[in-house]
Automatic annotation (TrEMBL):
InterPro entries: Beta-barrel_TonB (IPR000531), Beta-barrel_TonB_sf (IPR036942), Plug_dom (IPR012910), Plug_dom_sf (IPR037066), TonB_rcpt_bac (IPR010104). The lineage of its organism: Bacteria, Pseudomonadati, Pseudomonadota, Gammaproteobacteria, Chromatiales. Gene3D superfamilies: TonB-dependent receptor, beta-barrel domain (2.40.170.20), TonB-dependent receptor, plug domain (2.170.130.10). Residues 465-935 form the TonB-dependent receptor-like beta-barrel domain. Keywords: Cell outer membrane, Membrane, Receptor, Signal, TonB box. It is found in: Cell outer membrane. This is TonB-dependent receptor. The keyword Signal applies. Residues 1-29 form the signal peptide. GO terms for cellular component: cell outer membrane.
Length: 968
């Protein structure tokens, strides 16, 4: 059973039953020990001493809930909060899991665990995140924070601001998540030390070859006060080692079309899927987190604090099984089964012009991620009424994802000197919606035959991202002796951010056939073992799992060449048109690499309200935030080697030279004004009504600001171009309104909260094709004509299509309602007084629709991250030293990203995830616990717009934990 102390003054107020006449100033003082650090620095600094009021100690999970409710009650915005004691007591592997227990917040499970969070129906790209009030960059390669990078053991509190105020850093249309590490001088005890150790077991690991069953978690933390409570030190360490296992079916996008039903006159061609994957996934994840904080108060009017946070998250994962390529429009299709205009079943036979085949995959992925955050904060009470706060910070993230792929194909006979690819391929399948499909292969017996399977290709495709932000901030507040305005605040902030994306590649062999130049590898018995599918997947054919290290050592006896950023294959020092014929075209690794620079200057002015309206106490704030953004991106523009247009000889990492491109810097500067208002009416001692209105913004994902434009000229002289990104993208903007009613029961029994919200989204980023685009007017190099290199015939050029990311003006509303209820049943007799419930329900709807054609015909799908209905609930019981609780998280179907060969936006089925925990406090210092995550082994399931067109079916298993805690 966890032990903690609420803020002294807050509990004194609670003990008095939240006495009538509680002023805004008192409420502000009450929140000094519980509000996030960024808020405290602007609040009233004077607090009563321990001798002036009674100290009331609240123990256990129920006390933690009350502490969170008090934090919510006295915040001056619409917000949700979690206390550290709450986090330490629940089975939260990371902050992603912890945050999903708050109203209106849901998560996207990756590998069975929460990583990205959604707030009020909006995906992680619309969520802004800070640590100790400082902007955080991400390892995701975008702006979306991967909250599984943050160990819950190292975070002392979390707040989700659903309505902003002018003093908060801009960036969250969905909301702002504020994480806070420990502040040792606010700790109730002189010295505290805690150790937490847990063992872990996954019950599906035995279904995955080489899957690991056991894992562990370990953490310790220390907080101490010295030198008459003028010096504070906090240290923390958290380690996670966990196996990652999954068995999965993944359907691929419908990217080909063909007439398969024989109706040509009045019926369009039918859409055909690229194929599907059936795989075992396994591996291990190791996360090491470090936290340190040092506070010094040499004088009552001055405080200096420095803190550091580091998290390293490394994962190694393999995927084994097979990837089925149906062969597109060139395949022979028999007995087609249609869902509308899309093929969901049939028999596909390889033809001389199709690529129909089964690839046996033995992929090896490694991901090395690290986030770092450092900051120094100085807080100075210049006078009784005037406060200054200065903050300087650094946030950085590095991600090195190495996607290693090993393809194997079926040979007619792998034992001969010159093996031949077996082109007699027939594949039958029938999708069963959200259930596993029926499949059949004429080569099924060969998948596990060492005399038939040969390694045909190896490729490694690293994604390396670096993101770094440095910021400086100065804030001031001045108390006013006025009847309406209690104080005003003013501040300025400047930040510089640099994002770098580096792509590289190494490829050898052929994934569609056998190469004469790069012969396939003959496997030996020591390299392979036969793998059978088990459980729900047991009817799928067996296959050969290949020891990657042994196979590559045999294929590359002199060592595997390392991936490089390169124009292609050839002789160093020559131009691309002199490359060896048939070499891979890897110039994308050069064109997709680059940097983005973002400088932001912001300033705000905000007034805090403290008055009465018709004898109803009114508090809140209003203000405006000015934001000036300068964004730039490096670019390589294809100028066809014209030196007058800046063409330069650019040497790649392999020494190859390309003189076709001109390096350049693209971008722009823009300014925004964001007005904001928060009002809180204290209707009674236990009831309050909140209203908020604001203009908010979220900048585009930082990787979408990169420049990756490519252009081409067809044989008939048509100029076309495309870019998935755009350095000129502007932010998402929205006007939003919130109203909420909060009723608090007695000081230790809970609360009821109901809220309505409305967001008017002004625009979204979408991919748009402009026909007859004027390339010359847009600054692209356009030659006078196209000359055939053989005949010399010249062709006049014409403008064609240009496809790129744009800010469209097709916005719309997102609106919804939230209800939250917490009740501790103190009125029940005897042992049942420890019974309680905490839950929330949110309903969200939107008129915003986005087109997709991944399932065939173009259809409209909802906004990514939006589930109409989201429910979270916890039923708990506490008696003496024993606790037990059952938690549930439910969300309706939603749209999000599925990762297969390529990233795909799909519909996810609704899901319910149950977790259970029980604990017993053996002594005041020592406790034991047992918990189960994903109690019902809830799978992840997705589909392409229609449930009959299967996307993902993925099972992760249950995670069991047994652990001990020791504190002193």
């Amino acid at each position: 059973m966890s032990k903690f102390k609420l803020s002294v003054l807050t509990l004194a107020i609670a003990a008095a039953g939240f006495a009538p006449g509680l002023s805004a100033a008192q409420a502000s003082a009450a929140m000094q020990d519980t509000a996030p650090a960024a808020e405290q620095d602007q609040a009233t600094k004077k607090q009563p001493t321990k001798e002036e009021i009674e100290v009331i100690e609240v123990r256990s999970y129920s006390g933690s809930l009350i502490k969170s409710l008090n934090m919510k009650r006295f915040n001056d915005t619409v917000s949700e909060t979690i206390s550290a004691d709450d986090l330490g007591a629940l089975p939260d592997v990371s902050m992603a899991d912890a945050l999903t227990r708050l109203p209106g917040i849901s998560a996207v499970r990756t590998g069975g665990q929460a990583a990205e969070i959604n707030i009020r129906g909006m995906s992680g790209g619309f969520v802004f995140s800070t640590l100790n009030g400082r902007e955080q960059v991400s390892t995701s390669g975008s702006r979306s924070i991967e909250f599984d990078q943050y160990p819950s053991e190292l975070i002392s509190s979390a707040a989700v601001y659903k309505s902003p105020k002018a003093s908060l850093i801009e960036g969250g249309v969905a909301g702002t998540v504020e994480l806070e590490t420990a502040s040792p001088l606010r700790n109730a005890e002189q010295h505290t030390f805690m150790v937490n150790a847990r063992g872990m077991f996954n019950d599906r690991a035995d279904e995955v070859p080489d899957g690991k069953e056991m894992g562990d978690r370990f953490s310790f933390s220390y907080q101490g006060k010295f030198a008459d409570d003028t010096l504070g030190l906090a240290l923390g360490y958290a380690r996670l080692f966990q196996p990652s296992v999954a068995t999965q079916f993944i359907g691929l996008a419908y990217n080909a079309n063909k007439d398969v039903d024989g109706i040509k006159e009045t019926d369009p061609n039918e859409f055909i899927s690229e194929g599907f994957e059936i795989q075992h996934k396994g591996g291990e994840e190791v996360r090491n987190g470090y936290m340190a904080s040092l506070e010094w108060v040499p004088h009552d009017a001055f405080k200096l604090k420095g803190d550091a946070f580091i998290s390293k998250f490394d994962s190694k994962a393999f995927a084994r099984g097979y990837r089925v390529k149906l062969g597109g429009a060139s395949a022979a299709v028999g007995n087609p089964v249609l869902n509308g205009n899309s093929v969901i079943g049939g028999t596909f036979n390889r033809t001389s012009s199709s690529f129909t085949r089964v690839e046996l995959v033995n992929d090896d992925n490694q991901d090395f991620d690290q986030v770092q955050s450092y900051g120094i904060n100085a807080d100075w009470d210049v006078s009784e009424n005037f406060n200054l706060n200065f903050d300087v910070s650094h946030s950085s993230a590095e991600s090195d994802f190495r996607n290693g792929l090993l393809w194997s194909l079926v040979a007619q006979d792998a034992t001969v000197a010159n093996p031949v690819f077996d082109s007699n391929v027939s594949i039958s399948y029938l999708l069963n919606g959200l259930n596993l499909p029926d499949v059949g292969f004429n080569q099924a017996a060969a998948f596990s035959d060492i005399n038939r399977v040969m390694v045909s290709k190896y490729g490694i495709y690293p994604f390396e991202n670096k993101d770094e932000l440095n910021a400086v901030r100065l804030d001031g507040s001045y108390k006013l002796d006025m009847p309406v305005l209690a104080s005003f605040e003013v501040g300025v902030r400047y930040s510089e951010r640099e994002y770098a994306n580096d792509r590289s590649v190494y490829e050898f062999g052929n994934d569609g056939a056998f190469s004469n130049l790069q012969k396939p590898l003959r496997l030996t018995q020591d390299m392979v073992k036969v793998i059978d599918f088990k459980g729900d997947f047991s009817y799928f054919p067996s296959y050969l799992a290949i020891d990657l290290d042994k196979a590559l050592a045999a294929w590359f006896p002199n060592g595997i060449p390392q991936p490089v950023k390169t124009w292609g294959t050839g002789t160093p020092g020559v131009l691309p048109d002199q490359f060896v014929a048939g070499g891979p075209q890897t110039g994308w690794s050069m064109l997709q690499s680059g940097k983005v620079f973002e400088d932001v200057l912001s300033a705000y002015l905000m007034a805090n309200i403290d008055t009465d309206v018709f004898n109803i106490p009114l508090t809140g704030n209003f203000g405006v935030r000015m934001v000036e953004t300068k964004q730039l991106a490096t670019a390589l523009q294809d100028v066809k080697g014209d030196p007058k247009l800046g063409a330069q000889n650019i040497t790649d990492d392999a020494g190859l030279i390309n003189g076709q491109y001109a390096p350049s810097i693209l971008g722009e500067t823009y300014r925004d004004y964001l007005p904001q208002l928060n009002l809180n009416f204290r209707l009674t001692d236990d009831d309050q009504l909140r209203f908020a209105a604001a203009k908010v913004m979220s900048r585009p994902p930082i990787n979408r600001l990169a420049s990756d434009t490519s252009t081409s000229i067809s044989d008939d002289g048509i100029i076309s171009g495309s870019s998935s990104n755009n350095p000129y993208l502007r932010p998402f903007y929205a006007d939003q309104y919130d109203i909420s009613y909060e009723h608090y029961f007695t000081e230790t029994e809970g609360a009821f909260v109901a809220a309505l919200f409305y967001k008017d989204i002004k625009s979204f980023i979408s991919t748009y094709t402009t026909p007859e685009f004027d390339f010359a007017a847009a600054g692209f190099f356009v030659p006078e004509y196209r000359e055939d290199p053989v005949t010399g015939v010249r062709t006049e050029l014409k403008n064609g299509d240009y496809t790129t990311a744009v800010n469209n003006d097709k916005g719309g509303y997102i609106r919804g309602a939230e209800v939250a209820y917490t009740q501790i049943f103190k009125f029940l007799p005897g042992i049942w007084q420890g019974l309680g419930v905490s839950g929330s329900y949110s309903y969200t709807e939107s008129e915003i629709q986005q087109p997709t054609n991944l399932g065939g015909d173009s259809i409209e799908i909802s906004l990514p991250g939006l589930s109409e209905n989201v429910f979270t609930g916890t039923l708990f019981w506490e008696y003496d030293n024993f606790e037990a609780r059952l938690s549930a998280r439910f969300r309706d179907p939603f749209v999000s990203e599925q990762v297969a060969v390529n990233e795909q936006i799909v519909n996810y089925d609704g899901e319910t995830v149950l977790d259970f925990q029980t604990s017993y406090q053996v002594t005041d210092n020592f406790g034991v616990l047992f918990q189960v995550n994903n109690l019902t082994d809830e799978p992840t399931k997705s589909y392409f717009g229609d449930e009959l067109q299967t996307g993902t079916i993925q099972f992760f298993g249950r995670q069991y934990f047994f652990g001990v805690t020791y504190s002193m």
